[in-house]
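Researcher: Hi, I'm a grad student and pretty new to this. My advisor asked me to get structures for two proteins we've been looking at. I'm not sure of the right format, so I'll just paste the first sequence and hope you can take it from there.
Model: That works fine. Here's the first sequence with its structure tokens right after it:
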Amino acid sequence: MNDKNMQLAKELLKKHFGYENFRQGQEDIISHILNMEDCLGIMPTGAGKSICYQIPAMIFDGVTIVVSPLISLMKDQVDNLNQVGIPATFINSTLSNFDYAQTINNILNNVYKIIYIAPERLSTDSFLNLLKQLNVSMFAIDEAHCVSRWGHDFRPSYTEIANIILNLDTRPVVAAFTATATEIVKEDIIGLLHLQTPFTLTTGFDRPNLYFSVETPINRKQFIFDYVKNNQDKSGIIYCLTRKTVDSIYDELLEFGIYASKYHAGMTEKQRTSNQDDFVYDKTCVMVATNAFGMGIDKSNIRYVLHYNMPRDLESYYQEAGRSGRDGDNASCILLFNRSDIVTNKLLIEQGNPNQNHSNEYEKLNDIVDYCNTDKCLRKYLLEYFGEFPNFDECDNCGNCNSEIEVTDITTDSKKILSCIKRMNERFGMGLVTDVLKGSNSAKIRSLGFDNLSTYGIMKNYSKDTIKNIISFLISEGYIVSMGDKYPILSLSFSANDILFKNKSVFIKKKIEKISVSNNNKLKTMNNNSNIEDLQYDENLFSLLKSVRMSIAKNLHIPPFIVCADISLKQMSTFFPLTVESLLQIHGIGAHKVEQYGEVFLNAISNYVIENNIDISSKSCEVNSFDFVLTEKKEETHIITYNLYNGGKSIDEIANIRELTKTTIENHLLKCYENDLDIDLTRCVNTQYENDIISAIDKLGCEKLKPLKEILPDEVSYFDIKYYVLKFSKNKKL
């Protein structure tokens, strides 16, 4: 019976989600769930945890209840499920009284297979009464680490789940999922949710498509601005520790002409929702946020996550960094390390609960500081932290493995700067200190008498940026104290004496790329270990299809990534699918999506191919057949069209019979003609303009079809032009 169920599971995977195979761990978990065994799945963000309960939900007779912590996550999940043809809904505070009543009525009439609910609403009398009237086959708990006080996002309401399940007349199978869980958190989840001898699976925390790097730029803001500017066409998140930093970076990005969104707890709920929607719906490409924007973000096409500040623990960092690359395509995760973040995090820990013992939190903080300071493989460090021991020392896919460390002695320069600040009585900011070191002849310097200092002009051969960068480094290392918000004043710390009077040496470590990178701030991704092929896609077609996707999304009022992922568009731009059969082979494109808007994509691709005279003979997708896939028999698809045409059918009739677009049928017929099959296309070609078309070809050539179309009458179609181009070429050969 289970074998039959697993076969059905694979068919549903292809039909609804457009995937040929399950990812690592998915099949094992689904198999155990279908055997009515409790499960705990510990799988990294983007590994496909949701499918582990969504597929069984379709097979079970009853309904599946999914406990999900965030409203935004529920909405995205439900929108996605409805788009792939799986009936789902949610119950939360966003529903109006009318919508709530309608939803409850639909639930009682068995309209839905999956119901999402917030943990806080589980124990309400209304929902408990509803549960008693339902045939609940499965309880799925998403973000299950929230049940544990040792997790990084404890939610008291999660502790009620076990009692609610216990009070049901018939206990359903229970499946819990989380992205990050240490051994103690795992034990907590099993105990607090009362999982019964659960099948536990940890797929591994490695995300091969993510490029991890720790950078220590002298000017973090400049690094951010340069990076975002060089990746403006990509979606990314910039995480900051404080609301103040979020506001500052957001404002400066706008000044740079970069349209961004921001998100933190100091904003109104309306503002947060509006800004999140702008980001999710691709109205803005950049989100600047605190960790309040962490869990529940299901946007699949995030290409980078920059941490302006160091988070307080590696669990949080990995969770936040893991928001990128959920579609399996390459993404970058860059942490900008500054020692001042250690102090800030310690303050935030103390402010959380002054009376609590924070030893565990300080230990976790030390772990992430060690991560930032290590010169070993970053990927290996992360995996070992989460209890995995990879069989490599270098991954060739992180900032440390792809860099060499260059050490520069700046002791003498540091002494010059520190001496200058001391001689200026520690009362001025970076700008004026720099001007004195450069030997500026400004009226202010002369009036203050700084042109008489021994340090005046002592670094005149240095650029201002170089001097400021060294000052910033000395600030980050704790030798200089910068006090004040608007106009910070520089003063010396006690440790500065070690440099000035105790001959302490000062070194700057700089990473040097081992490989050639055209721009240091371009999106860094390495494909050596990626499980997604390095597609040589047509960038112009990819851009066009992104516009098509956006148009579809607007019409359906859903985020673009729900229509299809970036990787799907890249595959379309690589293989140029022109038929329903070939479109179904694209990653993430299932039968339901093809039915909804497949023709829109096919027409866009077909028109692009025609307008640019692209030979797609070597770009076809290999068709993998399932029983439900609309595949033709062994006969080639253009031959089927050929037989129908020679049988007297018109192009429109053939398109209707085969459920294909008119353009696709036209391409089939042109292929038949090109292959010298016995076919007369003059019955469907506009022969009235033959001489005009031939004349245009003589004049402009036939490398591009669009220029020909532009000088010919509107009645002449691309099909007409293509036919005469083929005819012209054949006659030329003769």
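Researcher: Oh nice, that was easy. Here's the second one.
Model: And its structure:
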Amino acid sequence: MEGSLDKPSVAGFKSKHKIQEIHQKRSKLASEVVLMRRERDAKKNESKRLRHRVTGKSRDLEVESANYGELAKKKLAEGKEEIEFVMRGQLLRVLDNIKADPKIYPEILKQLAEKNPIKFKSEREVERYLESATTDADAVGVAKLIDLTLGSGTFRTLSFLDKKGDSAKSVFKLLKHNIEGASFEKQVERGHYLNLLETYGVQWNLEKVSRDSVQNFFDANGGTLDGVHIETSVEEKKDVANKKTTKIGRVIIKAPQDYDWRELIHFGGTTKQDSETSVGGFGEGLKVASFVLLKDQGATTVRAASRDWELEYYFDSVASESYRKPVKGLHAKKRTRDSEPGNYLEIVFEGEDADKKVKVFEEARELFFSSQNPDFWGASFDNKATGGFKVLSPDLKQKYSHLQRQTGRLYLAGQRTHFDSRDKWENVSDLNIWTWKKIQPKDRDRGMITRQEMGKDVIPLIVESMSIEQLKKSVYDFKDLWDGLEYFNTSYTLLESIVDRLAKEKINLQFEKQYLASDLPFGDTWIGDALVSKGFKLCVPFLKKIGMKGATEQFKEWQSHDRTEATSAENSKISILQKAAKILGLSDDELKEVWIFSAREENSVMHGQYNPMFYWMAREALNEPFSDALHTYVHEAAHKEGPHGNAKFDYTLQDYIQRIHRFILDHKKEWDLLEGEWKTTNK
């Protein structure tokens, strides 16, 4: 518009005398320019005719001709400047007329606010912007904004308004036509490119596509699939001409909620960004899922619908002006339909494996919470604001076999998520565990949560929401696993966190006598084995914090014996042991008195115990073969160097055993005599 004499830049303005004045000036200026050009051409022709005779005169005429040309340019520039000034003044008057119209002005405010959400947060902000336009430059800026927003030529249409309002009805009709013709909805109805080229390198398998598709319904339905229906069918289409049969698989997912079609068009278009319970939030799930379904998974139709609209995704050529070479991209087309409550997603597959693809969508229901999902049945604990878990009791495959451990699943915000591996679903030890809210930054691939994140984010969220009574109950729910939990596993970490909270409150629980917290020093496996052989169950050590008896304490109790009177036969055997020990080279201070106790009566697995003043020996040990009884005796003698696990004890005991072996080999007759004496005493 600005600076062009060829366009009717001021036509239609209400100030008719100004328009007439401009036209007169324009005509006068044009006439002057024509006359000047004619006079200049005449002078040039005259100059050419006289050049060969009057050189000096010709040069003067050329200079004069050039001056006329410069003068014409100056006059033209002055005329354009004057017209532009008048035009800008007219833009302000058009703006005043817009503001004064009770019907058109609100529509302008509405359209500018809706279509410029980044620039204007409300219609009130648009109004303040228009009210602040008081200069010619401001008016030009407003005119450009209106044309860019509502379509080129819209402001020119508005220039037909006059103060009397005679033209308002016609102008409003033209304005609505401009707006609707340029509306985004109309563009989508014709087919809209989603800026996703077919070369986009996204790699989703069909399981992930189905999961993402169902997840949209799950989130919109309040974090449950109750009320969401997944309908599938497979039929055969016969091609009579080619004598072929093709499978047609159809998936329809229905839900009762309504939503706006615009959420399916834009990347980032979502209502879930600030939700604590929705897994999604990038506003790209269905767009990318449709892309993969159509491009890689053999889908022929991907269609979504709600209320009075339906939207279908498809591939089509991208406009040549938008990309450097011929290529296809993902498009969407909106259609109207008879209004129906709720919404649905329809996917159609075609091919020999259409039935298998449909089945993947059927199985996707298992990946989300619903009242029909058995992973959530019989929960040990569940808090709808945080999360919960279900302890999986071990299976006993054979009467005397070790317990067969079960593995469970992880759900974040009610959606199954990979744990510590992107390839496995069922690898959470001894548990199903879930949260009802997001617990970490969103992951586009809904990929996995690590073991560290489980311990840092998931478990604390759940445990901190438990009451004291719920904590107590959960400890007993783990009863079948007390003696089998493995360090670093999720179940171990969870139970330890529960116990730590109880211990912090100084709460002790009651445990049956056969359960012992395994607090034995490293290396004392023989003690643990001995306890297990007597029917005790060695449990995770942290249970000692809340009242479970420790294995060490039980072992110490075994060390408190009741001395019994030795029989004559037992005294004879003690003498034989001391004689043999002396032959082995033990010193006199190691040849201590032996006190007798009954391991059977005390329910003890111990056959001997060191005391600085004497040795305890079980009556049962003296009834064993000579070599075994001698091993027990020298074992207690070696304890003068320290307890089990002490290096000096280990070295001394090893030395004594080697001496026994050498004695048997090098002094076989003496050994046979002692062994014979031992056997005779038994009789």
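Researcher: Is there anything I should tell my advisor about the second?
Model: You could mention this: Residues 1-14, 81-87, 271-283, 397-402 have pLDDT under 50 and may be disordered.
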